[in-house]
Amino acid sequence: MSRPLYRGVSGIGGKPLAAAEEAACYYDPKEPSENGIGGRGGARKRHLAAAAVRIGVLVLAAAALVGSVAWAGTLYAGRGAAARAAAAAAHRGYRRLQEQLVTDLLDIGELAGGGVRAKEAEVCPPEYENYVPCYYNVTDAVDVSDLGGGVVISYERQCTRDGRVTCLVAPPRSYRIPVRWPSGKGFIWKDNVRISGQEFSSGSLFKRMMVEEDQISFPSDAHMADGVEDYAHQIAEMIGLRNEFNFNEAGVRTVLDVECGFGTFGAHLFERDLLTMCIANYEASGSQVQITLERGIPAMIGSFAKKQLPYPYLSFDMVHCAKCNIEWDKNDGIFLVEVNRLLRPGGYFVWTSNLNTHRALRDKENQKKWTAIRDFAEGLCWEMLSQQDETIVWKKTNKRDCYTSRKSGPELCGHDPESPYYQQLNPCISGTRSQRWIPIEHRTTWPSQARQNSTELDIHGVHSEVFADDTSSWDSMVRNYWSLLSPLIFSDHPKRPGDEDPQPPFNMLRNVLDMNAHFGGLNAALLKAGKSVWVMNVVPTNAPNYLPLIFDRGFIGVQHDWCEAFPSYPRTYDMVHADGLLSLEKSHKHRCSTLDIFLEVDRILRPEGWVIIRDTAPLIEAARSVVTQLRWDARILDLDIASDEKLLVSEYKFESKHEKHDSANLSCIAMEPQGSIRRIGQVETAENRLGG
Predict the structure, then answer these.
(1) Coil, strand, or helix at residue 150?
(2) What does the entry list under GO cellular component (predicted)?
(3) Which of 412, 295, 304, 307 is nearest to 349 (CA)?
(4) What is the pTM of this model?
């Protein structure tokens, strides 16, 4: 593999850069021509030389193409299958030679032009280590010293392209590679997440974790007073089950955990084949989402505030709130209406709160709150199944006619979008007209639901043959990924350099993000292959919306606009995958630059994380030039000689994340051409890789 490109140093220090210095460290990603290196006169000569060589490349490539096509045509003039097969093989061989010729001549052109490269992106100042766009906005308006500068924190998502940060978010100096799964579920490195001393002194976090010298551990009984196992068992009994192992039999697979603490409930349910999505507000320190993701449990930033969550209606089998800070009685119960939108028919709302105790209800104000919540629940046609101690379980109705026979409650929605993207909360009842209105007890149970039969696929307008082809394709693709990239990436990697011998299942990958999930085929293939991963299936807002199908398969995901920041903290995913995303963005007139998108991928990728981009050859070649600006170690793989699609496989080397700390120079340093570094993007075929 090509040698890593390490990250250079930038203008950094203990305080934010001065305006002039900061301007020098930022650049416009949409104007790479202004990011050249060298003086005007020298640059002009080099550009002219490079242009001349590129013209020569085009002439030679065109001549080679015409010649090979003409020669192949003479072969095709022969008759018989053998002659046609020989012609096809020869044509493929010539195509590969042409590609190599063009690549080599472009390299010669680069050398002739003095090694002109696009300027590499600079590393952000230290105060950006936990930067979350759309929530955490660095400004000069407010001085909050413990956050490393002036900040404005918004619990409501507010994205703008003005003032976009174009530097690379680097980890803290003391960052360590996360602990492997499943050990990482039990403890994490303390310096990998942001927790302030004030929170320790308050004692607010000790009930849920134990802090040692360099690590944080999460005992299985830390989430609840009687232990998370007893708590889950209690919920199962309240539903009418023998224990939590029977949740799947009752139709429960996907759970939305509101303000999940640090993911202990979700970690426990994962062992029971339940998939839990944690959501919580943005938090500058002690973040529930950041710590949960660090443990390898699904989570994302989200809040019950003014906007709907970016999930389809009728998607979760259970919504869980254990002492979350949501005031369910406020705003005419609109937050409960949002829970109702997300719940499938027959789904459960589990609420644990101090408000539910007899002692709390002696207070008249608490009685008023409790009465309001109970009345709102009845108006939504929820049945209160049981109450034990602080916990109450409601069951959403599975009968549409309940809404016409009730005496009061929210009206049914007229305009009823299935997958709203951060739209304002709607005070009406959604999903009653949908074909997806199927009670959870009547749905195919996990794991069979991942396969979806023809009747279930018809609901989503997907033909069973198309679905079967997609499934077969992804099964094959995942096998190819493993054969091509092991032992570099996946869970069959024996160990990292310097590691002690790992215990099974040797899992380097845990958190996977699929940027253009389509039907969720990658997710299904990974699980079928027995990989201990979970996948955040992202459906772009400008792509066909198959997110409801993804949820109906028992997976989780979210809608997202990739011209905006993803609602997650830095360094939270081990692998980011994108199939056809570049083509999708190109078809929509490049609403934002490829560099914009890759900068965001760089932010959420863990050190030593991997990016796999699958797309057409021209777009992959173009993307390769972009990732050089991010200092990723990258190569191109040609999986199928007969296909125009290629893979761009990139690794974000851990060493490059720390290089910014190793220089005392406080000014931005322009990276000079590195002639000693091997060319990025070595073309390699499956045949060559496997020795075929």
Answers:
(1) strand
(2) endomembrane system; membrane
(3) 304
(4) 0.78
